[in-house]
Specification:
alpha+beta, 14 helices, 372 residues, binds phenylalanine, rod-shaped, two-stranded antiparallel ribbon
Amino acid sequence: MSGPNTNYDPVEVAALEPAAVDAAVAHALRAIAAVSSLEGLKAARIAHQGEKSPLALANREIGALPPSAKAEAGKRVGQARGRVGQAIAARQAQLEAERDSRILVEERVDVTVPTLRRPLGARHPIELVAQRLADSFVGMGWEVAEGPELEAEWLNFDALNLGPDHPARQMQDTFFLDPVDSGLVLRTHTSPVQIRTMLEKEPPIYVVAPGKVFRTDELDATHTPVFHQIECLAIDAGLTMAHLRGAIDAFVQIMFGAGTRTRVRASYFPFTEPSMETDFVCFACHGAGSIDAGGSAVQCRTCGGSGWIELGGSGMVNRKVLRACGIDPEVYSGFAFGLGIERALMLRHGVQGMHEMVEGDVRFSQQFGMEV
Ligand code: PHE
């Protein structure tokens, strides 16, 4: 409450005079108009609307006026503060609108700029098939075995009963390594993994060995110098050809579907005795050799009319090989089989030529699924 104004100060009261109030307003409006940023406006608001601004100070003086003068002074100062307040609000709205439109420009996102995101690759179908077959065998308790692609000639041939003069040794179109007496070759099949496994492990042995192999073939529709095989080897007490047939059946059914029948034909491999060539019933004509094409039977193109498709080589592990690996053939016997993955894949998925398989075009791989 303000009491009677005993210490009357004429200087202070001058602040309430119309000229002074108008001058304070004019000063404030100029300052507000001059600011060019929201920060600047904040400072102007403190200076012209804050507690220590001339108009706020003038307002405080009203209480000390005689009652007759209070109303008029109050009205004048109130209106003046109102004008300044409106000017600040208007400038604030203006500056905010400017800022917003500036942000829209400065922080604009060009959605058409190419991104760094790369399309997801796809695992090669050869890899997928090898993995699926190996996984299925792992599920039956077998282990995955591996060997080097650059292999000792001895393991690739000699230990497999393919002696230096063996005709089959010449038949395998081998890449030898310089110098020839290095004793190294690019492995021509996955069978040396059999030897490595038998030298390393004690029976019982159940391994599946997928991998790259090499032969001096030109790349054409059905050949490639680098291809893939998958090989199975089992050594245990009392294994017979019945077990071999069972394992092959399991393998074929994983690859070509449940119920796929197999047959074996006599063949020859130095490291198996007896040796067999395995065929499975054609998945396209189911063994009929022909396919119904709108009422008339046409020869099945998948198997060439025989009803059977050749899978790969197999046999009971030769006793000489067992002995060379320190396994007693009187106690243990075993079987092995191996096949080319490219061929199986071409058959299974109707891949037209080897080129598609080796070119590495992701569009080819993507057709087999996007598993990574
Ligand atoms: N290694 C033989 C080949 O490449 C295939 C095979 C494997 C045969 C295992 C018998 C046993 O032709």
